[in-house]
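DATA SHEET
Item: assembly model
Revision: 1
Owner: S.N.
Input lines:
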Amino acid sequence: MDNQQMIQDLLKRVETLEENAPEDRLALGCISGDLDTTMAAFIIALGAAAYDMEVDIFFTFWATAALRDPKKSAKKDLLGKMFGMMLPTGAGKLPLSKMQMLGMGPLMIKGVMKKHGAKSLEELMKDAAEFGVRLHVCTMSMDLMGIKREEMIDYPHMQFVGVGSFVDIFSKAKQCWFL
Amino acid sequence: MTADELMALEVGKLVDARGTACPGPLLDAKRAIAECPMGEVMEVQSSDDGTIIDIQRWCKKMGHEYLGDREDDGFWSVYFRRAK
């Protein structure tokens, strides 16, 4: 192989490597719908945003209810209404993964958080909107649980997608965590 | 830098993030950095001592020059020079 050919080959390989190199991007997947894990997701997302990283959070299954707006409502069938009543109406009503204690746990945690100047999940979501953190909500989960787009929070960077989008997102990311 | 040297610095932008917990001080620093003139010193005050190492690491990654930190009356002040 002559030198010219070798250089051409190498250039091509470098180009391919560059195209496939991960971007300065963090992908998070939220599934639990618990207050503690959802808060952790938003705090990590905001930390990454402070480092100028692009951040995408994928919400699926129980986590979709964290994005409901308690002030909004939507037309639903009977099953949807039942699910709607049993699922938390948004970030302010999420249970804890531990020490739920029939609802006492979240109240106690929120009291302690306030005392220590920690932001509520709702405040973290506002910061995330300001810092350009993008939220991607699984439409299949919404369908299963009868959650409608009309009852979701107003958030400037929110899309309703499927797993195809999440794969595209995490395949470009340096890090992908599911919590 | 010693605490006295830090106190003698001319501060281009002061951020009072006292009373807010993680990630508040880091976000406040990130928000305010645009308002700090290039090459000038930014001071971030925080009541969370985790902020000291957080801001050190953040400065290294973001290309700012970390100058030091000092403990004040129940809070910490961290200083760095905006370089980017």
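QC remark: Chain A touches chain B at residues 43, 46-47, 49-52, 113, 116-119, 127, 131 (CB under 8 Å).
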